[in-house]
Structure formats: C-alpha cells, structure tokens
Amino acid sequence: MTHETGVAIVTGSGQGIGQGIALRLAEDGLDIALFDLPSNKEKLDRVAEEISKKGRKVICLFGDVSNEEDVSNLVEKTVNELGSLDVMVANAGIVFHSLVTETNVSDWDTLFSVNVRGTMLCYKHAGIQMITQGKGGRIIGAASVASKIGQPYASAYVASKFAIRGLTQSAAMELGKYGITVNAYAPGPIDTEFLGKFDEFHTSLSGQSKGSFLEGLKTKNCTKSIGEPKDVANLVSFLASKSSEFITGQSIVVDGGAVFD
Question: Which of these is catalytic: 123, 153, 157, 185?
C-alpha cells in the first residue's frame, strides 16, 4: 500500500478504535489531528505523545461532533496548523441499550445527534475542504455490524448505523467526481471499553457473570475470537491509502466472520 504524506483527522480518538486508527495512520506517515470531548483531554494527550514519538506532527482539538461550529473549526484549525486535510475518519459514536417500547426520545435524539449528525458534519466539512484543495481525499466513517443486521435492545444504535451506511453511499456518489472516496468500517466485537458496555448490559439482563456475554460472542464467528482495535485500524489504513482509489460507497465488515454480505 502507498500513502501520500498528508494529514488525517480522527474523531473520538482518545481511546479504543479511534486511538488505534490514529496510531496506525501516524505509522503510515500521516500527521494527525486528534479530536475528542474536553473530558477526554488526558487520554488524548497520551495518544498525542505516542504519535510524537513516531516522528509525526500531532495536534489535540476538543469539541462535540454534533455541534457544526465545532466540526467546522476542527477542519479549519487542522488545515491552518498542519497544512491540509487528506483523510477524515469520523469515528466518534455512543450507545445505549433499551427495548424499543421503552426507549426515551431524549436518549434517541442524543444518540442520533452524535452518531448520525456528527458523522454527516464530518463528511460535509471534510468534503468542502477536500473539494477546495482539488486533490481528492479519503472520507471514512464508523458503521458497525449493527449496520447490516438488527440487534435486540439496541434499536437506536442499530438505526443510527444503518443511517451511516446510507449516508456513506450517497456521499460517495456526490463526491466521487472530485477524486474523493467515502467508505465506512463496520466492526463486530472489538476489545474496547465500548464493547464492555454491551457485556455489562447483557450480563445484568441475564444474571450471568461479567464477561460471559463476550465469551459467547466468540462462538458466533469463524475465528472464535474477539477482535482488537488494530484489526479495524488495518482496514482504515488501506481505505486511507492510494491503493483503495477504486473502492467507494462501501461499509466493510471486520468481525472475524460472523455477518456476511
């Protein structure tokens, strides 16, 4: 794979999959703009320190992806401080669990504002910047295996990830003529704090011991294992590279072989 020297933004990069992606793209030779909530400053600073050790430029920016001004400022500050925007990774997302019959509208709206509006705003402002630059680019979003098949107790999360698939396809159709590809990664179970929330909910529901839900997930894929952030980062590395120039509008599953397209 070949990567141009360039600049990537990774939202939600203080931990988990976002952190793994940021570190991998730095290893690939890109300078990185990290973005997360102000409450994750210590985590973001630690990621920035690791990236600096790899010899890449890095900046830490803070805000809320659901706020358009924050996302617009993110892109503007990245370009001003690092010189361009070549890869946008709209990774930030949240989850809550509830039966659809018990779902609180406020919780639903909050989740959609982060997962869907936040991703749209990243696509929008990255697209504007990349069109202005006139040299193409890579826009990459966070879908999920939940964007391919429904899950009980997660209707809001599932619906938001289905929305990201549709958004990704439409944006790919609109931006392709500018040399901009738009794709999404669709992880299955990845060993992160985020996955721990699923285990905590389902084990409390079943009365089983902590960790038993995760162990059960291992029986449902071909590799009989839980993935790691690097498994998703490897895919994003490819999607961010010049080698992926003929791939766009896709939401690609990374789950050890449980959900098949």
Answer: 157
Token pair of 203 as six digits: 């084990």
Can you tell me whether residue 64 is helix, strand or coil? coil
User: 148, 153, 161, 185: which is the annotated catalytic residue?
Assistant: 161
> Is 135 designated active site?
no
Q: How far apart are CA 199 and CA 91, in angstroms?
A: 21
Ordered domains of the chain (ranges, CATH) = 7-188+227-254 (3.40.50.720), 189-226 (no CATH)
Q: Look up residue 9 and give its amino acid.
A: I
For residue 28, give the nearest of 247, 254, 230, 245 by alpha carbon.
Answer: 230
DSSP 21: H
State pLDDT tens for residues 124-177. Answer: 999 999 999 999 999 999 999 999 999 999 999 999 999 999 999 999 999 999
Give the C-alpha separation, 9 to 261, whole Å. 29
Say how far apart CA 47 and CA 50 lie, in whole Å: 5
Distance, in Å, from the CA atom of 112 to the CA atom of 56, rounded to the nearest integer, reads: 34
User: How far is 160 from 144, CA to CA, in rounded Å?
Assistant: 10
Token pair 């704090």 is found at: 193
To the query of whether residue 161 is one of the catalytic residues in this protein, the response is: yes
Q: Is the pLDDT of residue 2 over 60?
A: no
Q: Alpha-carbon distance 72 to 121, whole Å? A: 8
Residue 246 makes CB contacts below 8 A (sequence gap 6+) with: none
